[in-house]
Amino acid sequence: MSAPQELKVLLLEDNPGDAFLMKFYLGESTSPVFNVSHAETVKAALDLLAEGPFDIILSDMNLPDSFGVDTIKTILGKFPGNLVIVLTGLTDEDVGLETVRYGAQDFLTKGKFDSKVLISSVMFSFERFKLNKQIDSFTKQLGEENSRLDTVQKLLNVGFVEFDLKTNTVFRSDYMIKMMELEADTKTESLDTAISHAENSEELAAFAKEAIAKGGSGEFTYKRKNTGKEFRLRYETIGDKIIAVIQPL
């Protein structure tokens, strides 16, 4: 049997009664197990954060050395990228919503939750926060890969294009759009609209259907309408798609 998940929690609360209740509620969870460190001031919390990371920060807003939204601004200003859940009083719910705009993941109103609600709310916020971080990481990685692809296209002076006959759409890379002197909003178009940019558009449409039917790889030459510039398309078929690079002649 595997050991239960352990999560480090920083509880920022100066009211002894509220602090005791929060620790008691979190202590009722056996999976995950919450290891709680307690601070009564923002300064003490920052000192603890400087020593090492926490999975979750539960923070009251009104403390001896900080008040309201400034509490969240200070914590996330010094230690960005942390999961913060705000604890508000009954009269501070509007301020709780404001803290979310400044980076808090969620807020809980004191007196309106028991241990079950607290634990489920904390875990929901934790899983959502973790998923958002994964999405951000993937988006950053995708951006870096796209940047590399653009650089390679510039070095080779080729553009990338994908024909999808199943969805009747065409996707173009940014460099291909620039190379063919197309409008910036033509990154994705219907197949009929995309091939209309070629002088021999009917021949290009017939080529696309034949390429999918035969499979494999090959090349096709066509002229850009209006400019008369010639381009060579080298392609590989994958199912109902044609993956190709285009190079000016």
Structural features, described:
This protein has two domains: 6-137, Rossmann fold (3-Layer(aba) Sandwich); 157-248, 2-Layer Sandwich (Beta-Lactamase). The protein contains eight helices and eleven strands. The strands form two sheets. Strands 8-7-6-11-10-9 form a six-stranded antiparallel sheet. The protein has a five-stranded parallel sheet with strand order 2-1-3-4-5, sandwiched between helices. The relative contact order is 0.08. It is elongated and about 80 Å long. Helix 1 links the parallel strand 1 (6-12) and strand 2 (33-39). Helix 1 (16-27) packs across helix 5 (115-156). It is of the alpha/beta class. The protein has helices at 16-27, 42-51, 69-78, 93-101, 115-156, 174-179, 191-195, 201-214, and strands at residues 6-12, 33-39, 56-60, 84-88, 106-109, 159-164, 169-172, 188-190, 217-223, 230-238, 241-248.
Key structural traits:
five-stranded parallel β-sheet; 249 residues; Rossmann fold; six-stranded antiparallel β-sheet; single chain; Beta-Lactamase; 26% strand; alpha/beta
Termini gap: 65 Å
CATH level-four homologous superfamily name of the largest domain: Response regulator
Structural category: alpha/beta
Q: Which fold name is given in CATH as the topology of the largest domain?
A: Rossmann fold
Mean pLDDT: 86
A few lines on this structure:
The chain is built from eight helices and eleven strands. With 249 residues, it is an alpha/beta fold.
